[in-house]
Every structure is written in structure tokens, then in C-alpha cells.
Amino acid sequence: MEKSLNFREFIITRLIKLCGYSAIVFVALIFIFLMKEGIPTFQEVEPGMLFSARWYPIEAYFGILPLITGTIMVTLGAALFAIPLGIGAAIYISEISPRWMREILKPLVELLGGLPSVVLGFLGILILSPFLRGFLNLPTGLTALAGSMLLGGIAVPTIVSVAEDALDAVPRAYREGAWALGATRWQTIWRVTLPAASSGVLTAVMLGIGRAIGETMTVMMVTGNAPVLALSLSNLFSPVRTMTATIAAEMGEVANGSIHYHTLFFIGMVLFLISLAINITASSVVFRTKKRYERILS
Amino acid sequence: MDKIIVENLSLQYADGTESLQGINLGIKERAVNVLFGPAGGGKSTLLRCINRLNDLTDVKSSSGRILLDGKDLLDPDTDVIALRRKVGMVFARPVVLPLSVRKNLTYGLELAGERRKSRLDAAVERSLTLAALWEEVKERLDEPAVSLSGGQQQRLCLARSLALQPEIILLDEPTSGLDPISTSKVEAALQELKKNYTIVLVPHSVQQAARTADTAAFFLQGELIEFGEGKRLFTAPRQKQTEDYVTGRFG
Amino acid sequence: MNRILAINRYQIQRLGFGLLTLIALLTVVPIVGVVVFITLKGAPAISQEFLLGFPRDGMRAGGILPAIVGTIYLTIGTAIFSVPLGIAAAIYLSEYASDNIWTRTIRIAIINLAGIPSVVYGLFGLGLFVLFLNFGTSILAASLTLAIMTLPVIISTTEESLRAVPQAFRTVSISLGATRWQTIRRIVLQEALPGILTGVILGLERAAGETAPILFTGAAFFLPRLPSSPLNATMALPYHLFVISTQVPEMPIKVQYGTALVLLIFVLTMNLIATIIRSRARAKRQW
């Protein structure tokens, strides 16, 4: 009886371990397949062309610069909306709101995070962009600004939940210490609690930005999809194109193995590497800053 | 007759906390063997060695032997599962499993493969009686164990290890969270149990040690300072450290 | 100085708190607004024919049954592949893994999987499942793609639920002669189950609403029949909404809002179920 039990235990333990390592396998697989179809781009398109300012595949212009600037512009705009809103809401929920309100707000924010991006994009087309067109007197409402606003809305739940967790995790003793020294709650938040939670809040912001960069459907639906080099503020009020939207919009029409096909995979590779960089930085920020703060505050 | 012989046991945790240094000790059969001393002395560590619970923790190094009925239980070939059924343990905080009273008691038996309801019910009544809890909970066997009071929960934990009919019972400060009445009930149960079981007790106070000990061992910072029969350590200690601790000069 | 300005710390606090309250409301009110708005505009479109019928006239009339069914199939498919794998991986991380370089690598891998843009998952799914493994544009390929995308959510919420179970339970179980797996199966998993379920439902909710990963791996705009095997392509609510709102001329607004409403109901119901499970479990907890 004992022997068969041991054997079963052995098999189950091995299986579980295998599943544990599967995450590494998948990341590797994704990278490999992106590379497999993306690397040929370097053989087919000269670097000069690839990093030029014209994206017009029909006439064999594969410059990805406009797409990169499009992504950057929309993401920066989203960050400008989402960071103050997200951190402010997180502080409110964690430090100011009464208990009963917390129980309402937290699920609501989580709900926003669950809204399908295509629904937001849909509302963006029907409501937001006509509004922007009228309000700001623009030729079209499908602009980087519309994308930024919606992306901000998508990034906020991520920022709020991670930042709120970080603020909540600050030991009560820190706040009580400040109050005992005569600080108001407001002062305590800004001088004690927020700095103590800074690494978590920073992680929240990075994850939120990561979410914004990776968003596809919303931007595809409301940013106008014009691959224009977006370098000045005025581009905020006109159509742009992001990397993600490019892939989504054009993948359906390319021939397997064509140059266009490979370039789209190449853009996917770039996106993968960007998100890799953000995530690795975000996790190392957590580890390093946490260690430093433990030393200072203990 | 020594049920357990600890031979030159040394152990070091990976994080540098509590350790044991060259412990030589005999655990007397069918008696209350008390291991006492200030915190960090190694008493809990020794207990956890006896039922191989230390296998779950980060142990940097260990050497020596613990002979149970002549066989070294630290040997890698030992059947650890069978060992843990032979050696029951009661922890400092009453930890009841999130199950009913009955299920808490039959948990170990069901793991061992016992399915017959008659056997299980008999074990439930037997172990609760031994732990002096049967009268109080016999109507509440199917209620969640957390609904019992603290003292009752701790006696339930005692009954739970008794259900497996062990030969040895290890108790690590079992009454530290309990009121005096519950404490005296547990101590009385131990006096009854020692007729049939070998008891190793880490008391939570010197007074409890003095009340219950048939043999006593004084531990200080991982070393066994003194060991003696009966209540001698409390009335006529030979080592100065023992005397200082027993009389309350430190600790 | 403060006297001169006639502002003291408490007034600053009141102002600041007011500002933050405003910000919080600003964050929350749009959500409620979105839901209410779509409900109002979409409700007129909901009818038995809409929910149970097939599309007619180039999607402009009739029903969206195949899209609803397709989303259900995809959600089930995602669950089949991601739930067992995700829970097992979480069990490994919580109960077996020690803190070494390999475990840290696994965690970094999970964080990365969570951050990969959904359209990149679509590319990956296209490259691996549709083309390389030759599954074609199918429910199978789309489900596998969505499953890998959902994995990080399931793993992290499951691990959190497992870790929340008090360590003392495990110690007691082992001391009574249980093996590690017996302890997990009999005690830890039971107690962590509500949290695990909540995480699974929330993960699947996200998968149900995604468009980009299924764009090239399984979604089709118009299919005359419901899919009969996992190797068929399928219609799906998010993709359907996308196409009818951007690519079909003269699409009645009512139909668009109706589709959006159905998708919203699907997603919100899952959210509601997860929230209910979570709060009921919290009340019943024996620790």
C-alpha cells in the first residue's frame, strides 16, 4: 500500500513540477516564433528603409518610425491621464474613503478593468470622437487624443489596483508614528505612506503603461490609422497609427511569407521586447527599492 | 527503560537561528519527560527532530542519531510516514483543521487507509475520552472544530494525535494560550496518559515543569546543561545555570 | 507665515481630500456611465430573435446567435487548456518550489506573459497553432492562444489563494502522517478553492472579451452554420462588434448597441459570479 502511494506521489510531483516550468517554455516559444518570422525582415528590407519615416506597404515602403512615434504619442497621452487619476484614486480608496465606500469602489474599478477593449473602442467611435471633433473644432475626431483618453481609461484600473495594494501594505505603524508626531493625515500620506509604497506605486505605473502600449482594438478603432510621423504636439489632434493597430489591421490581408508578412512579425518582435524590458525593469525596481526602504525605515 | 536515546545530536538551521549542539539524552518510557529552559534553547528543535518535522524546514547541517527502540530515526531509509503515526505532536497554538470535530480526529486514520465506520467511531470516542473531552463534545461531533473554545480545541489536538494510537506524544508548550482550568485539565490528562504512552513535554513555565516532571532536562542556547530524575533539578540543581533559571534569576 | 496666508494644515487637508474624492469619482463614474448608456441604447435591440437567430442581410438584421455560441465555445476551450495547467503551476510555486534562480526565472516568465500585447499573442498563435501545427483558423488554435494569454492571471491568483491558507494546517497534516500531496489535496486546495475559482472566472472573463488574439487564429465574420468541430473557425462577440462598428456600411445603430450590450452582459455576469463567490467564501471561512 505504501509503495503504490509513494509511486503515485512521485508521478504527481513530477507532473506538477513540469507545469510549473511551463511558463518559461511558453515565453521561449513566443520569442522563437516571433523571431522565426520576424528576422527575415532584415534580409528583405534594408535598415535604412526599415527605420525611415514612410509606412506604405502597398508601394513597398516599410518605415516603422511613424508607427513607433504613434505608439509613443498615444501612450504618453494615456500616461498623462492615467497616472494622476490612477494614483489619486488609489490614495483615495486606500487612505481616505470610509470602509463601506471601499467595498463599493474596489469592485467597480475591477469592473472597469474587465470591460472588453472593443466595447470602449466602439463607444469611442460613436461618442468620444464626434464630441472631440465638435468641441475642439477638428476635421475628424479619430485622433491620437481620443486614443490617449480611452487608453488612459484602460490603464487606470491596473494602476489603481496595484497601487492600492502597495499603499495598503504599508504597515499601520508608519502612519501611527507620523500621527503621533503631529502630522495631519494629508501630510502623512504624502510624506510617509506614499514614499513607503513608492516601489509598489512605481510598479503599478509601469504595468499600467505596459497595458497601454499593448492595447490594440481601442487604438485601432479611434486613432484614425494614418501612419504619420508624430513628432509635435499638433499631431495629438490628428490621426496616428500605433504598432499594435498596424499588425491587427494589416495581418489579415498579407500573403504568407511576403515581405509585408515578415515586417509585421518584426513589429511584433519589437513590441515583445518593449514589454519584456518594461516588465523586467518593473520587477527589479520592486526588489531593489524594497531592500533600500527596509534598511532606511527599520 | 529509555524509549528514545538521543546520541550526540547537533543541528544548524540555514538562517542561523536556534540550533542544537551535541545533545545526549535519554527519554524514559511511560513517563513525563520535561525539556525546559528559556526561549531559543533548542527544545522545540529537538521535538521536531523526533517526528522528522524538520525535514520541511531549511536545515543547513545535522549530525548524530536518535534511537527509537534501538533504530535510528534520522536514517534516510526510515519510513517517515509510519514514524509520524507512531510519534504524535501537539503544538503551542491549538491548530484545528478546518473540518468537523469528528473529521479532525479521523483525519490521520483515513490517511492510513482506515475506512470502516465502526473502527473510526470507536477511535473518536476512545481518543476524546483519553483527552478528557468526550463528555463535553459528544453531542457536537459534526460541528466545525473551530466552534470549540480554546481549551477544548487544544484537548482536541491532543485527542487527534491519540487517535492514531502512537507510542510517543510530543507536546510543545501545549497550555501556553490556555486559562488555568484548561491547563490543569491537560496536565491531569497527561498524568493519566503517561501510564501507557511516553510523553515528552516542553512546558511553558518552570512551575509547570516542576508540577509534571518525571525526568527533566535543562536546555540553554542549544546545549543540554543538566539532566535529572524526578524533581531533583528543581529542588537540588547541580549546575549554577540551572539553579539561576529555576530560581528566576534570569529567563 | 501661515497666519498671513490664513490657510492652515487642516484646510489644506480638506482641500486635498476633496480633490482626491473628485478624482476617485472621475475614475468610477465613467464605468457606471458606460454600462448604463449601453444598456439603455442596446436594450431595444434585445429580443428572442436577436439572441437566438442567425444574422441576415449582411449582419444588419436578424440575430447574433453564432457569435454568442462562438464566444461560449472559445471560453470553454480556453478553460480546458489554461485551468488545469495554471492551477498545477501555481501549486508548484506555492507548495513545492524553493527560492532559487529557477523559481525566480519562472516568476519573471509569468510576469512577462502577463505583459505581452494581445495582438502579439495573435501573431504567435498564427505562427505556431494555425500555420506550424496546421490547425488552421480554428476554435482549437484560438483557444490555445487565449489559454496561454490567460495563464498568468490564473497562476497568480491561484498562488495567492494557496498562500493565504495558514501554514499551520500543512504542518499539522504532515505531523499526522500525510504526504505533501495528500495535504494539498485534502486541506489546502479545499480551502483555497473559492479564491481559485474567483481568479479563474476573472481570467476567463478577460479571455471572452478579447479580439486581437482571435483575429488571425479563429475568428470569422460570417459563417452560415454553427461550428461543428474544434477545427472550424467561429464567429465571436468581440470580433463581431468590431467588424459591424467599423467595416459594415449602413449598419443600424441599434444592432451595434445590442451586440455591445450582449457582450457586456456576458462579461459582467462572470464578474458578478466571481464577486459573489469571493464574498460568500470570506463569510464562511473557518480561519
Largest interface, and how many residues on either side? Answer: A-C, 85 and 88 residues
Counting copies of identical and different chains, the oligomeric state is heterotrimer
- The CATH topology annotation of chain A reads as MetI-like fold
| Share of residues in helices of chain B | 25-40%
Q: How many individual helices of chain A?
A: 13
The CA-CA distance between the termini of chain B, in Å, is 32 Å
Strand content of chain A: under 5%
The SS-based structural class of chain A is mainly alpha
Number of strands of chain A: 2
Q: DSSP helix count of chain B?
A: 10
Describe the fold and architecture.
The complex is a heterotrimer of chains A (298), B (251) and C (287). With 298 residues, chain A is mostly helical. Chain A has one domain: MetI-like (MetI-like fold), CATH 1.10.3720.10. Helices cover 78% and strands 1% of the residues of chain A. Chain A has helices at 2-38, 40-44, 47-50, 65-96, 99-114, 117-136, 144-169, 172-180, 185-196, 198-214, 217-222, 243-250, 259-297, and strands spanning 55-56, 61-62. In chain A, strand 1 (55-56) and strand 2 form a beta hairpin. In chain A, helix 4 packs parallel to helix 7 and helix 8 (172-180) packs antiparallel against helix 9 (185-196). Chain A is globular, with a radius of gyration of 23 Å. In chain A, 50% of the residues are buried. Chain B is α/β, with parallel strands linked by helices. Chain B has a single domain (32-51, 80-246), classed as Rossmann fold. In chain B, the strands form 2 sheets. Chain B has a 6-stranded mixed sheet, with helices on both faces. The longest helix of chain B has 14 residues, at 117-130. The radius of gyration of chain B is 18 Å and the shape is globular. Chain B starts with a strand and ends in a 5-residue tail after the last helix. The model of chain B has no long low-confidence stretch (mean pLDDT 90). Chain C is mainly α. Chain C has a single domain (66-284), classed as MetI-like fold. Chain C has helices at 2-5, 9-42, 48-52, 65-96, 101-115, 118-132, 139-164, 167-175, 180-209, 212-215, 237-246, 253-284; strands spanning 55-56, 61-62. A two-stranded antiparallel ribbon of chain C has the order 1-2. In chain C, a hairpin with a 4-residue loop joins strand 1 (55-56) and strand 2. The radius of gyration of chain C is 24 Å and the shape is globular. The model of chain C has no long low-confidence stretch (mean pLDDT 89). Classes of the chains: A mainly alpha (298), B alpha/beta (251), C mainly alpha (287). Chains B and C meet through helix 2, helix 3 and helix 6 of B and helix 8 and helix 9 of C.
